């Protein structure tokens, strides 16, 4: 199991734009495995590569239906809105209210560089938006309505 250190808000790497992945080599596969281990260990529902200090366009998500690995993800369709609590593993113990689309369709490559599409609603739609934002240096705090509050002990962080 390969755990990586999660970068915390204030670390400037979280504000950088990530680079496209050209091919998934051994190094990238190890990164993806480590990202999954790190996300599960932290009880998160998503993690983006810059959160472990790597400026590549890779995210992992698991909202309870098994792991989704997205390489070079792009959101191609959104519909409706949801407003609710959101957290981030880079803001441990914190949460804020964020409005996101309630339906998201994304295209991406999987770990074999096969083209894939995924549709998500509710938490999955929120997680896709949140993690894709990370790849452009955008943090949920940029979207928060009102204050970020202390919710130490709650499990759902992305
Ligand atoms: Ni996050």
Detailed description of the structure:
The chain is an alpha+beta fold and 158 residues long. Helices cover 18% and strands 32% of the residues. The protein has 2 helices and 8 strands. It has helices at residues 26-41, 122-134; strands spanning 46-48, 58-61, 68-79, 82-86, 94-100, 103-109, 115-121, 145-150. It has a 5-stranded antiparallel sheet, sandwiched between helices. Strand 6 (103-109) and strand 7 (115-121) form a beta hairpin. The model has no long low-confidence stretch (mean pLDDT 95). Nickel (II) ion (NI) binds next to helix 2.
Spell out the key features of this protein.
158 residues, alpha+beta, five-stranded antiparallel β-sheet, globular, binds nickel (II) ion
Low-confidence stretches: none
Ligand species: nickel (II) ion
The class by helix and strand makeup works out as: alpha+beta
Q: What is the average of the pLDDT values?
A: 95
In whole angstroms, the N-to-C terminal distance is 20 Å
Overall shape = globular
Helix content: 10-25%
Number of DSSP helices? 2
Q: Biggest sheet, open or closed, and with what strands and sense?
A: 5 strands, antiparallel
Q: Strand tally, please? A: 8
Calculate Rg over CA atoms. 14 Å
